[in-house]
Amino acid sequence: MDALIRLIRRFRTCDGGAELIELAITLPILLALVAAIADFAVLFQRYEVITNAAREGARVGVLPGYAAADVQNRVKSYLAASGLADPAPAPVVTYGTEAISAGGPTINIVTVKVQYPHKFIFLGPVAVLLGGTPYADIMLAAASTMRVEIAAAP
Question: Which of 52, 87, 136, 141 has the fewest CB atoms nearer than 10 Å to its CB?
C-alpha cells in the first residue's frame, strides 16, 4: 500500500511534459499574431502603392494636352509596375477638374482617386479553416489633388 501511495505522489509532482502543453496552448496564438502582422504589412504596402499611383495620375492630369484616358493609363501602369496588376475587379480611377475660388483668383485643381480591392492573405484562409467566415475584401482608396499650373504667355 505504501508503494502505491509513493507512486501516486511521484506522478502528481512530476513536471514532465508541462512545456509541451504550454507550447500547444501558446503556439496558435503566436502564429495568429505573426499572420496578422504579415497581413497588415501587405495591406500597408499596397496602400502606399495606391497613394503613389494617385499622385502619379494627378501629375499627368495637370499637364496640358493630357486626357482622362492618359491619367487612367498612367495609374494602371504604375500599379502594374508595382506588382498590383490585374486584380479581380479592376482598379477604379476617378479623374476630375474643378475650379476653386476662395475669395481670390480662381484656380483649377485636378483630383485623382484610386480604389483597389485587397484580400487578406493569411487571416482569411485561417478563419475558414477554423470554421468561420473569411474576412471580406476591403477597398483601399487614395486620392491626390494638384493645382493646374497654366504658363503665362510672355
Answer: 136
